[in-house]
Design a protein that fits this description.
Length: 78
């Protein structure tokens, strides 16, 4: 776990923290997933490291694209 965190840049750690906070709030509301619409604004390297960390931590990751919405979504489920 520490190695995975060390691989993330400072920006990636802050963004990962936001994703985990959103997942925690969703779980407290009884939901089993959360969609992050701002994920694709991050640099590709940061996206890859965040996805690796989430998968390593046991989260299910789905990348979604909706034709009516130009923004792709990162779906995090537990």
């Amino acid at each position: 776990m520490a190695l995975m965190m060390a691989l993330l840049m400072d920006e990636g750690i802050a963004e990962l923290d936001l994703i985990l906070d959103e997942a925690k709030r969703a779980a407290e509301q009884g939901r089993s997933s959360v969609k992050i619409d701002w994920f694709y604004q991050l640099p590709i390297y940061t996206q890859e490291k965040i996805i690796d960390h989430l998968e390593f931590s046991g989260y299910n990751i789905t990348l979604e694209h909706h034709s009516e919405d130009p923004v792709d979504l990162l779906k995090v489920a537990w």
